[in-house]
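Protocol step 4 of 6: record predicted structures for both targets in the notebook before any analysis. Target 1:
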Amino acid sequence: MIELRNVRKYYRRDGRVKTVLQDVSGRIDTRRAYALLGGNGAGKSTLLRLISGSELPNRGRIIRRGRISWPLGFSGGFHPQMTGKQNVAFIARVYNEDVDRAIEFAEDFAQIGMHMNMPVGTYSSGMTARLAFAVSMAVEFDFYLIDEITAVGDERFAERCREAFAERRGRSGLILASHSIGTIRDYCDHALVLRDGELTYFEDIDEGVEYYRSATLG
């Protein structure tokens, strides 16, 4: 279970305040699959970072129970001077996973070849995202946070991502932030719509999609 208690998040830029969450409270069941919908700039990626703990709210609390992933594709946890293998080994140790198994899995999944032995700071953005996704799959989580990660790489890699999630979906929950209605209907049963600092929950995915469309187009 993930619980948000009066969570407020805002940024100050150029003398202006941009509010992402306005005193939001609610619970997210980590056994379920949610679509996270919202217009450009609504704060979907920020919300995922808050839930993961990689960013803190300005006010309020977020309580997490179970193993929650970082936002897939978020590479802030990689040390740029360490190699891909060294980064995988470090993350595996943090989550008490078998290091050799995690490295073997990440090498096979990311398919970046000799770059696994090179500093991550030398990677292209695509290679970094591939490794981030591979490490996410190498660690078993109760709940996955996904930010359009299936768009990373070529179609072959995207298909590997979809297959991996289909397999994990049987035993883990997720939040998927995406603009693709087809994608969220493939993966999700419920919806969270972020609009004007408020987070609205919909039990039925189609009702959530309709609300999102009307809010975006209207």
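Target 2:
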Amino acid sequence: MEKKNNMLARNAEDTKKLKSQPVWLQVYMATPEKQRKLYHRTLIIVVISQIFGGAGLAAGITTGALLAHDMLGTENYAGVPAALFTLGSAGAALLIGKLSQQFGRRFGLATGFLAGGIGAIGVVASAIMNNIFLLFASLLIYGSGTAANLQARYAGTDLANSTQRATAISIAMVATTLGAVAGPNLVDFTGHIAESIGVPALAGPFILAGAAFLLAGLILLVFMRPDPFIVAKAIAAAVQEQDDTNLLNSVSDRRGIIIGATIMVLTQMIMLAIMTITPIHMNNHGHGLSEIGIVIGIHIGAMYLPSLVTGVLVDKAGRTTMTIVSGFILLAAGVLAAAAPVHSVTVLAIALALLGFGWNIGLITGTALIVDATNPTARAKTQGSVDVFIALAGASGGALSGMIVGVSSFATLSVAGGILSLLLLPLIIWSRRNHNKN
């Protein structure tokens, strides 16, 4: 009888807490069917926003270095735009994560994209005024769009179950590809448009980037209602209050975050180190811009296009299996790039395709692990913090690649990257051993 009374008292308390929520949130918390519909609707909104976000990202990055070179009249600072994108992205990732945690994905992601759009407009203004300081400041702000573009992959996972998360991540990445492919192909067109209105041609892609980022932000702000993260957070809080055993084990939580973050940091560093130096390596051995463009284009395609298949595999085959697969593919990419004859575009293209594919698997697997290991009550903030390390890892990889090649060779860098990927194997062994102990 006492047990029954305690159960009735708890049910009454749960009902009271549920009724304290806004009416719309009560409906979603109590209706699994509405949650499923919101999950599918969120994916559609994310896909549309990511198409514009990808276009904004790729269009701007395509000519950032060229614009800086044109304004400065020297190649010595050609790497500054990429560094500023990265620093801006790292800082914005942290801010977007905190805003998303407190106010929802809609507000956090929209803020990032809108700030990125403002940064792109600032770049255009700096080109008109030939003001290098405004250019650098604007590029830093432009990085916010890059951070929002990356963090949008999390939005579709908020209401996904454990067998849908990697697939949801992959859908967002495929959508980014559509925009990323379109953006660079519009460089000449936007350049002509810019010149027709008295703006330097190299600033033309940033006009497109500004419009694309602003549209991506507005789409999220207007249509991502109700916010999936707010719903997921309310459901998680209700579940925890009903049964303390549903609380995540703090050790398992930290372990999952460490594993997921390490996978993404390693794959990002390896990928960017080899990718960054490949065009210079090819140029030094007599390959033209068209050949370099083909190799990098194949690489970028391999980074994103396999995502739908990768997501399904990560959900079906498991995180551990796909982490191991990622490590071996990156190893193969490094070895093949090192062994590629300097005159062979085909072998380099295959190596860079493997590099992109290995990165794709690592990013989707690592992202899924982060979602698995976090509870909505702290998930967005944690995701933002992890993305800071990913951005800094990319910057480190790019910077170190030039130093390694400067003192050694492209082959040394490639082999080193491949060997570094093998660190994923002891990481998995460690995670499995600790899992078995608990």
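Step 5 preliminary note on target 2. The chain is about 85% helix and 0% strand. Residues 10-245 form a domain with the Growth Hormone; Chain: A; fold (CATH 1.20.1250.20).
Proceed to step 6 after PI sign-off.
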